[in-house]
Amino acid sequence: MKDQITPIALVKAVLAGEIFAVARMMSYAESLNEGCQEALNEIYRHTGKAHIVGITGVPGSGKSTLVAQLCKTIRKTKRKVGVIAVDPSSPFSGGSILGDRIRMNDLVGDSGVFIRSMATRGTLGGLARTTLTGVDILDAAGYDVVLIETVGVGQDEIDIVQAVHTTVVVSAPGLGDDIQAIKAGVLEIADIHVVGKSDRSDANKTISELKSMLMLGAQSQQETEWQIPVLPTCSLNGQGIEELLSTIDNHLENLKSSGELSQRRLDIARTRLLKAAENILREKFEYHSEGKINDLTNQILSGDLHPNAAAKILLSQFLREME
Amino acid sequence: MKDQITPIALVKAVLAGEIFAVARMMSYAESLNEGCQEALNEIYRHTGKAHIVGITGVPGSGKSTLVAQLCKTIRKTKRKVGVIAVDPSSPFSGGSILGDRIRMNDLVGDSGVFIRSMATRGTLGGLARTTLTGVDILDAAGYDVVLIETVGVGQDEIDIVQAVHTTVVVSAPGLGDDIQAIKAGVLEIADIHVVGKSDRSDANKTISELKSMLMLGAQSQQETEWQIPVLPTCSLNGQGIEELLSTIDNHLENLKSSGELSQRRLDIARTRLLKAAENILREKFEYHSEGKINDLTNQILSGDLHPNAAAKILLSQFLREME
Question: To pair with B294 at 20 to 30 A between CA atoms, which of A191, B135, B268, B318?
Answer without folding.
Answer: A191
